Amino acid sequence: MARLIKTEKEVEGRYTEQWVVVEEDALEQWPEGPLQTVGRPATRVDGLARARGEARYTQDIRLPGMLHAAVLRSPHARARVKHIDLAPARGVPGVREVIGPDDLEVLTDEPNYEGQAIAAIAADTNSQTRAALDAISIEWELLEPLLDVDQALRQESYVDDPKRYERGDIERGFAEADAIVEAEYRTQSVLHNALETHQSLCEWEGDTLVVYTSTQFLWGVRDEVAGAFSLPKDKVRVICRFMGGGFGAKGSAGDYTLIAAELARRTGRPVHCRLDRREENVNSGNRNPTIQKLRLGARADGTLTAIDAEYQCLLGWDGWLPPTAGPAQMLYACDHVRTLEYAVRLNAPPMDAFRAPGFVEGTFGLECALDELAAKLDLDPLELRRRNHADHDPMDERPFSGKELMECYRRAEPHWERRHEVRARSEAPTWRRRSEGEAALPAHPTSASPWKHGVGIATQLWYGGGGPPSYAWVRLSGDGTATVLTAMQDIGTGTRTAMAQIAAEELGLPIERVTVELGDTAHGPYATVSGGSSTTPSVGPAVRAAAGDVARQVREIAAQRFDLEERVLSLADGKVTSADGGSWPIEEITGLLEDGQILGNGARGPNPAGMRVMTYGIQVAEVAVDIETGEIVVERIYAVHDVGRVINPLGAESQIEGGIIQAIGHSLSEQRLLDPQSGKVLTRTLDAYRLPTIADVPEIVSELIDVPDAHLTNLGSKGLGEPPIVPTAAAIANAIRDATGADVRSLPITREEMLRALREAEERRRAPEQVEAAPA
Amino acid sequence: MVELTVNGQAYELDAPVERSLAEALRHDLGLTGTKIACDEGHCGACTVQLDGVPVLSCITLVHTVGDREVTTIEGLAEHLLVEAFVEADATQCGFCTPGQIVSASALLEANPHPSGDEIRHAMAGNLCRCGTYPKIERAIHAVAAHGEGD
Q1: Which of A83, A292, A563, A718 qualifies as a cystine partner to A643, CB 3.0-4.6 A?
Q2: Which among B27, B35, B49, B95 is the top mutation candidate for probing chain A, defined by the most A β-carbons within 10 Å of its own β-carbon?
Q3: A277 reaches B (C-beta below 8 A)
Q4: Same domain, yes or no, for B59 and B86?
Q5: Which of B34, B93, B137 has its CB closest to that of A53?
Q6: Among B75, B102, B133, where does a domain finish?
């Protein structure tokens, strides 16, 4: 019987209560360790399609009569349209429709950030839409943009109210401290820059709106579009079978979808609206900048006594406050903690979720400050982290549902030990080694080497437990092949492959006999957003439950066919096997039904009541710094993470490497630059915005603890999309301090920031009484 | 009218003067394996070969191709690199992957046994936001090693 209960659901730190229907006969977790398919490396089931260019992305879909849309976007950060004349655009050859601020909610005549949509055009070709955009005549009244954070705070210009948290007595915490560090950290705005830009192709089929879109959340787009056009939800069908990257910025419909749908409605033709790269870099979301004021206190033995933190999160005009204080609140057992987060509203493009939003920024400040504290107390940074390990959630005393962080620390030890040998390279004059296999480069043959080497660590925690609802259907055909149907997305993380592995394992089939159909709200049940590292832990258990439903029916059918008891039958290697040695190919059972199919249902169960589900890890960075030029080379990163059971070790390794490489960009090169006078984005191209290339990649060594979380679902698996990007920047900054004695406190760590920190360290050496450094 | 030889097939198409090779391949010939990601020559996703030389098709006008043979990812479907990319897990979202393989095949044609540095140098113009770079390097090494016994 179905049972209705209430459970807690979390996406990227935002908790909600969720009703969920629980099946009584839940499956037991599989035993720990690699199984037949689950836990073993699997190449991607869609790898060939992607590698051969056969995978059809939103951008590749062409429909008969399709029109191209373009959007007139505000060139000003704050302005008012005094007069707009769309008529000349309507006269451009090939133009089929023009809409302006009066025609659609997402079009405005009072833009509050650069790039906000004003008008849109649908035409036969892209060049016609561009010509028509130029033909629109518009007269602006320019207004003074609010861009200064201090002024915004004075005016209380907030997207949300300031968020306060306090436990214990912060003053008492500092009174108990033997050492206190106080510093200001800054993180920059970075841009997602998925290679497939944001885009949608909309077509009306009678009263149903079909939306092909590059999205992380089919169902979210469905609901948003249905709301905007006052349609019943299932009159909107959303399709995304292959998706060219998201990283958090493709969680909602976006103006381009609503514009394409409206233009399609008006013209009666399919309309494709695609952001170009420059629109993408201005107006498709960003990781918001932060200014972090941290004060930490600890006893001589390293016990943290107080964490006091203020975060100014510069969200832009809109968005939501990411959980920036999360690491300060939850990472360590500290009795006295106070945090304050400001969601600052400015006339800048709105933020959007970006791979572990909030925790990436918050971890940078906290983990750097912790190393500054370790230096002050003359304690080993790894030991300091061990001593402050949180055995339960320090916010509400709840037990963690599964936490192998101490094991992560243990495994990191040999990599942390390398610091002695790495530091010794600083002594070796005139030579340095970039990476294995590359010739050593002579630096300054006549002087001592300017290259200093060091090692740094940083710990990570993040959410990633997923939650209900998510559903899957499995059908087993007469020929013994299975199809998983669930309307989730594979945004490139390999979830399609993971679902195939889970179903194959439960059905005892080789993975080649399992197909996964996803990416279409008309072809499968509801599944979670691909965000918050939630796809595998949310949909995976539903897929296993649906496959388990099929497996149970196969056993029941086989028991009747062969006059055996169900309990002696099991499914493995494509066979039904009985305990007394009997064995039949599965198609011998399913074949009885000819074209009949065995259908299974599965739902994601609740999260463990009264427990906190998190992911954990630690990374060790090795860097070289040229103290004359400020050049920084990351030479090696070691990463160990605990995300419960690992479904696909090969895909998991790729997730870790990808997260670390994005983090290296975040640490050293990437930065959206905003003109401080006009509020316009200066880094609009992939030339100006510096993504890491293959030449920037260090040696990366990674491992996973791979112990199922005993309390979490029938899988014990958590998500891995986000955890690896969380600690890298702090580990690099801490390695730089280890190498040079300089405190870098601002991302990206450009040469200017590096040289500033080196100068500051030099001044500190000269005047040891001046302990506290000026803010960055 | 433009005459074009793509993956050994001859085509004739009517293209306006400003048509890029990438657009011609994708829109006029339906060869959508070539991706457009920046459309201004910065990312490498649109890489194709002209007489074996990798070029950025988004900033190459189709009218300038002349009698040079165009090779796209569709023409490399059976290349050893394709299987090697899958085996090494060198594709995540996959949007950059065709361009990566086209670049890598040109590299191996010119230099069948590249060093790690040579790979990193030759492939630095092909951006991958998912961060498959270590796996790409592994895949190229795997194909280079495969050719060892030839």
Answers
A1: A718
A2: B95
A3: yes
A4: no
A5: B34
A6: B75
Separation of alpha carbons A536 and A715, rounded Å:
10
Q: Which domains does chain A have, with CATH numbers?
A: 3-57+466-603 (3.30.365.10), 61-144+193-283 (3.30.365.10)
pLDDT score at A772: 53
For residue range A509-561, what is the model confidence (pLDDT) as tens digits? 999 999 999 999 999 999 999 999 999 999 999 999 999 999 999 999 999 99
In the 3-class helix/strand/coil scheme, how is A192-250 assigned residue by residue? CCCCCCCEEEEEEECCEEEEEECCCCHHHHHHHHHHHCCCCHHHEEEECCECCCCCCCC
Q: If we measure between CA atoms, which residue out of A546, A549, A583 comes closest to residue A564? A: A583
Q: Looking at the structure, do residues B70 and B81 belong to the same domain, yes or no?
A: no
Report, as an integer, the average pLDDT of A321-347.
98
Cβ(B81)–Cβ(B104) below 8 Å: yes
State what percent of residues in chain B have pLDDT above 90: 95
Which has the minimum average pLDDT: A14-18, A21-25, B41-45?
A21-25
Distance CA A723, CA A534 (A): 12
Range of the domain at B122: 76-149
Residues B94 and B105 in one domain: yes
Question: Any bridge partners for residue B6, and if so which?
Answer: B9, B70
Q: Residue A641, CB half-sphere, CA atoms under 13 Å: how many?
A: 35
At A297, is the pLDDT very low, low, confident or very high (cuts 50, 70, 90)? Answer: very high
Task: Inform me whether the C-beta atom of residue B138 falls under 8 Å from chain A C-beta atoms.
Answer: no
CA distances for A762 relative to A756, A759, B44, angstroms: 10, 5, 43
What digits encode the pLDDT tens for the residues A559-583? 999 999 999 999 999 999 999 999 9
- In chain B, the number of structural domains is 2
Question: Quick check: pTM over 0.80?
Answer: yes
Q: Using only C-alpha atoms, what is the Rg of chain A? A: 28
CATH number at residue B59: 3.10.20.30
ipTM: 0.97
Looking at the fold, whether B14 and B64 belong to one and the same domain comes out as yes
- Per-residue pLDDT of A230-245, as tens digits, reads 999 999 999 999 999 9
* Residue from A54, A61, A195 whose CB has the most chain B CBs within 10 Å, to mutate: A195
Chain A contact for B84 (CB, 8 A cutoff): no
A495 secondary structure, DSSP code:
H
The confidence score (pLDDT) of residue A220 equals 98
| Whole-number Å distance between alpha carbons of B122 and B104 | 8
Place of tokens 């090697």: B84
Whether B81 and B144 map to the same domain: the answer is yes
> Is the pLDDT reported for residue A761 higher than 90?
yes
Check whether residue B55 and residue B96 sit in a common domain. no
Rg of chain B taking only CA atoms, in angstroms: 15
pLDDT of A174-194, one tens digit each?
Answer: 999 999 999 999 999 999 999
My answer on whether B111 and B81 are in the same domain is yes
What whole-number distance in Å separates Cα of residue A342 and Cα of residue A339? 10
CATH number at residue B80: 1.10.150.120
Q: How far apart (Å, rounded) are the C-alpha atoms in residues A267 and A68?
A: 12
The helix/strand/coil state of A566 is: helix
Residue A770 has pLDDT above 70, yes or no: no
Q: Are residues B64 and B88 both part of a single domain? A: no
Looking at residue A430, its pLDDT comes to 47
Which of helix, strand or coil describes residue B125?
coil
For A338, phi and psi rounded to 5 degrees? Answer: -135, 130
Q: What is the pLDDT of residue A11?
A: 81
The last residue of one of the domains, among B25, B53, B75, is B75
pLDDT confidence bin for B102, thresholds 50/70/90: very high
Greatest Cα-to-Cα distance within chain A, rounded to the nearest angstrom: 89
pLDDT at A432 over 50: no
